[in-house]
Structures are given as C-alpha cells and as structure tokens.
Amino acid sequence: MVRRVAVVGAGSSGLACVKVCLEEGLDPVCFESSDDIGGLWKFKESPEPDRSSIYRSLVVNTSKEMMCFSDFPMPDDYPNYMHNSLLLQYFRLYAEHFHLLQHIRLQTTVRSVTQRLDFSVSGQWDVVTTNKNNEEERHIFDAVLVCSGHYTRPVLPLSDFQGHETFLGRLLHSSEYKDADSFRGKRVVVVGFGNSGGDIAVEISRSAEKTFLSVRDGFWVISRMARGGLPVDMALISRFNILLLQLLPKTLINWAGERALNQNYDHELYGLKPRHRLLDKRPLVNDDLPGRILQGTLVMKPNIRAFKDSGVTFEDGTVEDNIDAVVFCTGYKGIFPFLPSALSEGPHRELTLYKRVFPPSLQQPTLAIMGLFQVKGPIMPIVEMQVRWAVKVFSGLTRLPSTQKMLEVLEADRRLNMHSFPNPQQAVLQVDFIHYLDFMAEEIGVKPHLWRLLLTDPVLWAKIFFGPCTPYQYRLTGPGQWAGARRAVLTQWERVAEPFRSRAAPEPEVRRSFLCSPWLTACAGTMVVALLLSHKIVPLVQRATQTLSRSKSFLCDLWFPD
Fold it and tell me: How does the record say this protein sits in the membrane (predicted)?
C-alpha cells in the first residue's frame, strides 16, 4: 500500500503535490535543490546551471482566476495579471495555509530514482539525495512525483548559424537575460517568437538604439485584454465556446477570429502573419509588440542565415551591421538525469507518457511526471488535476489501462496533433485545456455534472457552462470537495473587478433626455391629431366606428332578445 511519497521540486507543481498527498492521507517528502520554494517563479539575479530562470519584469500571461489552485483563490486585491513577485507571494500564502513547509527539504538535490529489486511486487523506489554539504542520503519511497519542470536546460542552437564563432558581439540565451540595462543605446537582435521572445524584444526596444526580432514564422498576437478590458482567457476558455468549436466549421471560426485580430492591426502589414491558421497553434500574448513596431523601435525580420564579424545576414538577403548582441529565445530541453534511462523510450530519448503523466512501461504505476505538456491556457490547474489523478492511481482507487492500450492512446494523441505540430516531439506535448481537465476529473469522480446542475442549481450551471472554466468547478463534487467552491464560482467576476476599485469614478450628471422632453411630446401629439383629422384618415375611422356599432347591435340582439 502506498504511504510515503517523494516529491521532486518545490515549485508550483511540487507545492500542489505535497498538498494533495496530505489531503489523501499520504506522507509526502519534497526535495528542493534551491534555498527557497517557487521554482521557476523565484527570481534570481544570476542563472544557475540546469535551472529555469526568469527576467525581472516578467508578468504572467494567464489571469489570476484561471491560474489559481482550485481551493485557494488568489487575494481579491491582486491584479488580474500579476508580476512574478506577487505570484511567488501567493505560493507562500498557499504553503502557509495548508502547512506545507514542514514537508519540504530545501537545498537537497535528488541524484537518482531507481526501482527496487522487488519493484514488480512492491512498486517501491530507491531515492538518493545530497544536501548543501554534498552529504549523501538514501531513502525508500512507495511512489514518486516528479515536479522538476522541463524549463531546465537552455537550447542555444549556435551550430545552425554559420559564422557565429567569429561574431564580435555578445551571444546569449534568454535564461541569462534579466533586464534591458546592459543593452541601452545598442543594436540588438532577438531570435525566437514565443511569449518570452516577444516580451524581451519589447523591453529591450525601450532602451536599445534599434531592436530586431528575427523569426522563422509569424504568430497571431492577442492582448491580455478582451472586450471591455476584461481578461482574455476568461472570455475565451469556456464550455460554451468549446461547444461552438465543435458545431461550427473550423474554417469559419479561423476566418472570424483572424478578421477580428486584423481589425486591431493588420498582421501582414506588421510582419506578424504566420503560415498557420489561428486555431492551429497557441497565439502570442503581448500587449505592446504592435505599438513598438508602429513606433519603429522594433523591426520584424526573417530567420538569421549567418553571422558576420559585426553583423547579421537574414534569409531574405538583408544585412544589419554593427549588431552589439543577439539574444536567443529558443526555449529549453527538459532533462531528468535522475530517472532511469529505460523510461526515455521516445525516438529522441524523450519520456514516453500516457496522458502526459504515466510511463506505460512500468510494471507498477507508482511514478508520475507533472507539468510536461503544452496547452492554450493556464498550466497550474492542469498540474493540480494531474496530481489528484496520480495519487488516486497510486492508492489503487483508479486503475490505468493495459500497457498496449496506453501506447495506442499515446500514438493516437500524437497523430491528432501532427497537423498543427509536424514535429513529433512537439505534437505529443499538446493537450486541450478543458478536454484534458475533464478527462482526468472523470477518472477520479470530480467532473461537474452539468445536467444535474441545470435541474438543481441553474444559476451555478449558467456560470459553469457560459462562463470561464475556472478551477473551482472541479471542487464542487466528489473526492476533495471544497465547501467554498460554489461561492468561488459565483463571485469570480467580483474578484476580477476588485483591483480596479482604486478610485471612485464620478457619477455622470443626470440630464433629462431630449426624447423625454414635454415639448417633443406635445409636438408628437399634435402630428397624430393632424393625421387623424386629414381627409385620408377620417373616412377610415368613420367606417371602423360604423362597424363597431353594428357589431354592438348584433350582440345585444343575440344575448338580450326582447
């Protein structure tokens, strides 16, 4: 029976793992190699080897109501899109509220996780750790939750570009970028067009003499704000919208969405238009990029072909000289050096995972990988649901399909995504936010019962079906039910509005509308009387009066005979 669980990493995923394990009566021990919780969201001035790193100004691109833990809403006064320091503060509040810190061992690095000799029967793992003094310790655990993330090893593809060895400027990965101070007054090229690439290019363009954003393909760019200035993810990610996507032709939705985005700014004119359609890939979330292009401080360029001594040649043949620095926003490679190599069964030695959680090859399903996926939406609610599912599997309350069935599902998921992501390594990482959450929720019995809610609680049903798919929905019923879930759903828009209430807006002066003017009423009445008295209307009225009189006489004779 599973009792003791090892959790690798104390970032957002690790904290959720510890909390869910405690909720299920298990004994978690969390190992964190750094000196604090927070993982990716703990800003550090200098990057550390094999650890993710963020820049000083980073602001989240998913809103607080969509990304919070399902039974712990963010404080009302938090901005809807917060700075990274506030998110770290939220993690501290979460850890303190659920008493998680006592289960976390800081400055302790996991060196290896291996199956015990009797693994086929016990499902247990040998875990070797070292502390800050490099002292080794051995442990035995019934199960393991891996939460070390896949933003660990920076990918710096210098070998793809001829002449980089003789380039006189600075070449760096975005993991080394902290702020734009060192680029003031310089000419900079940013390579890569993910969310980080867009953010960093915009920030550098405010300080540099000139900034160039070099991309292989464009992106559909959306703002954090939807109509009315509300969070865009709350407007888009709903069950009702998913239904529309299933009922309406995809071509029509792409056309309408792209047309709406191009009404804000023409993506082709701005050099942003991609080859793919809007729904095929995740859009780029950036509020300021088009404005920087409009002002000329940021210039869109194609992919780099080669480096010169002090310049860069692009694939369209254009050359930019006197380049001082090139920042590569080219992503990361997830590595898990402490795991058995047998688990990396993919063609490129990547982890093979059923539903992005469980290695199918294990004889006993007592190891799960958290957060190794990509999604159009917030990550934290999905990881929390992954943990809730994994712990139920560990405890034997939920069972996985056969190994063969899991491999078939994995391959089917990969083929489904190949149209939008021709790279198989990318294709297998993609999940759909609501469908994926609902699948795991159904596995453990916490999926909202929409038909039942429609009959018993139509107000809540309307909020869940037509409103944003916030994480609280998955605490309404079943294991882990939270008494505050219903209220959290009903009051979610109040928490959205709260940070805006920093100034009382003056009430507009009430003035009598011209349409309600007594003079206008008198004029209208006069016109009606004039029409009635005209020679065209009066005969008609007279005939109608005669008809009514005859009808009255007929009824009187019928009901009241002499």
Answer: Single-pass membrane protein
Q: Can you tell me the distance from the alpha carbon of 15 to that of 101, in angstroms, rounded to the nearest whole number?
A: 9
Contacts 24+ apart (CB under 8 A), 194-198: 194/284, 194/329, 194/331, 195/61, 195/284, 195/285, 195/286, 196/329, 197/329, 198/284, 198/285, 198/286, 198/289
- Residues 22, 64 within the same domain: yes
The rounded distance, in Å, linking the Cα atoms of 306 and 184 is: 25
From 446, 471, 497, give the residue that closes a domain: 497
Mapped onto helix, strand or coil, the DSSP state of residue 110 is strand
What's the CA gap between 532 and 95, in Å, rounded?
A: 79
- Do residue 109 and residue 171 come from a single domain? no
Same domain, 119 and 260: no
Better pLDDT: 524 or 236: 236
Longest Cα–Cα distance of the chain, Å, equals 121
Give the CATH number for residue 111.
3.50.50.60
H-type helices in 24-104, by residue range? 64-67, 84-97
Same domain, 123 and 204: no
Residue pair 324/171 in contact by the 8 Å Cβ criterion? no
Number of domains observed in the structure of the chain? 2
Helix, strand, coil percentages, rounded to 5, for the chain = 40, 15, 45
Same domain, 106 and 231: no
Residue 229 has a pLDDT of 94
- Residue 420 in this model has a pLDDT that exceeds 50: yes
Q: Are 337 and 349 in contact (CB under 8 A)?
A: no
Domain with 447, as residue range(s), is 4-152+334-497
What pLDDT was estimated at residue 153?
Answer: 85
Looking at the fold, whether 18 and 145 belong to one and the same domain comes out as yes
Q: What is the pLDDT of residues 296-318, one digit of tens each?
A: 999 999 999 999 999 999 999 99
Verify that 293 and 397 share a domain, yes or no. no
Q: What is the pLDDT of residues 176-234, one digit of tens each?
A: 999 999 999 999 999 998 899 999 999 999 999 999 999 999 999 999 999 899 999 99
In the chain, pLDDT over 90 holds for what percent of residues? 80
| Interatomic CA distance for residues 462 and 455, integer angstroms | 11
Q: Quick check: pTM over 0.85?
A: yes
Give 35's contacts (C-beta < 8 A, 6+ positions apart): 106, 107
159 lies in a domain? Answer: yes
Residues 3, 394: Cα–Cα separation, whole Å:
9
More confident residue, 347 or 361: 361
Unique residue bearing structure tokens 């093979």: 352
Q: Measured at the alpha carbon of residue 406, what is the angle toward residues 427 and 419, in degrees to the nearest 5?
A: 20
